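QA checklist item 7 of 12: single-chain prediction sanity check.
[x] sequence parsed
[x] length recorded as 207
[x] structure emitted
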Amino acid sequence: MNRTLSADEEPWMVLRAQAGNREALEWVAATAQGFLERRLSALIDEPADAQDVLQDVLFTLCRRIGSLDDARLFRPWAHRIAMRAAWKSIERLRRRQRLREDSIDPDTLPDPRASSPELDLTGMLQRVSPASRLVLTLHYLDGMTLEATAAELGVAPGTVKSRLAYGLRQLRGAGPHSLMAGGDATSAETDLTSRTRRREVRGGERE
């Protein structure tokens, strides 16, 4: 099925997939790939790793579609599964990187001062460690609370707080893994905070 379904039609297709309809299951995989592929590629540095996670997520969605209680929540349910898979992948890559760190020649590392001072916010986040990038994206760009971010990833709130703190230190340019000198990193942090505050204000107005 190539036709894009409306928001009202999607739950019916999910229900058909839960009943074992092959065409509907193919729709589940294709639709999820459409809204998850770019997100995972932005969070996981290596394209091959991002694709591996995506394929695992699509398989999981099709295998577990019957466990979804409310067909209207297909997209947030799929997103939660993808974010948890991304977190696990990032943690595996971090452990792998630690094993290689002792063999890295410092002279082969790029000079952070060579970076363009006009990076946009997305570019700045690409320079933050993947684990911190994930929680920064969910908390600041998606406007999720710390508790909701922790629930989305299936980790403790304290873990989210520590990764946020580490990511913000990187944006400020603190420590040995600084992104760059000057005000750009501070501007990025300010922009992230401003986005969160604007969402809180809009949420309060709706209430």
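[x] summary fact logged: The two ends are 39 Å apart (CA to CA).
[ ] second reviewer sign-off
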